Amino acid sequence: MELTINALAVAIQNKTLVKDVSLTVRPGSFVGILGPNGSGKSTLLRTIYRALAPQSGAILLNREPLQNIKIADTAKQIGVVGQFHSLSYNITVLEMVLLGRTPHKRRLAGNNREDYEIARQSLQQVGMEHFADRNFATLSGGEKQRIILARALAQQPRLLLLDEPTNHLDIKYQLELLAIVKSLDISVLAVLHDLNLAAMYCDDLYILKEGQLIAGGTPDDVLTSRLIRQVYEIDCHVMKHPRTGCLSISYCPAGQERITG
Ligand SMILES: Nc1ncnc2c1ncn2[C@@H]1O[C@H](COP(=O)(O)OP(=O)(O)OP(=O)(O)O)[C@@H](O)[C@H]1O
């Protein structure tokens, strides 16, 4: 699925939080949105999944304006993994993942064999199949985050929107989660904070600052020390990782050339 955003503006309480944003997520590509805290990343994502209405501009799915698509149809096509908010529903993990099947079912219809199979496969994809019968509320933050991804996978979306999906995960699971997402043959738009993870997994990156896009392109194009300084007001060293060939960024706190020695 192709996502196109043209000259989008979003305002809340008369304050414009997203200004003139245009970007494209090509079918099957993994696109990252980066930017400092409060730069409008979540606001942009929430507008795409229709939790907020745009002030102006257009959002198109496969060139069809979003407002022409029924909400029930967008629910089938767009999966969302939002920011972690210590969810503690008192249901089993399998029941939580089965909720991902809801947009595909008639109202009040129960889960059928296919729903169970898809839910168990999704649990397997995130390495959590042995947690199926556990009470969701008793999981750790990182375990919950993986189950929420499994729920989105069970939805079998054609576009996945992720808001800081690696929050609460240790580094092994950060890498694993992004590798799972990358291996899916669907379009992904993810808000990320970790520039190194973005460099490793994203095909394209866009950088937001104060609601405006200030750069877009491949990680090699975007993640320059000059741009990182402009956006985050820090010094850094950017090099190619000798094993992965991806950009690798190390940070130098402002005004400190050496911390030890
Ligand atoms: N409902 C709201 N009412 C008023 N201001 C809001 C509302 N939602 C967001 N904002 C403000 O809009 C700005 C952008 O918020 P947003 O959550 O989109 O930023 P973000 O880039 O995702 O930030 P972070 O990296 O900290 O998660 C922030 O200054 C925030 O305080």
TrEMBL record:
Keywords: ATP-binding, Nucleotide-binding, Transport. Residues 3-235 form the ABC transporter domain. InterPro entries: AAA+_ATPase, ABC_transporter-like_ATP-bd, ABC_transporter-like_CS, P-loop_NTPase. GO terms for molecular function: ATP binding; ATP hydrolysis activity. Gene3D superfamilies: P-loop containing nucleotide triphosphate hydrolases. It comes from the Bacteria. This is Iron complex transport system ATP-binding protein. The lineage of its organism: Bacteria, Bacillati, Bacillota, Negativicutes, Selenomonadales.
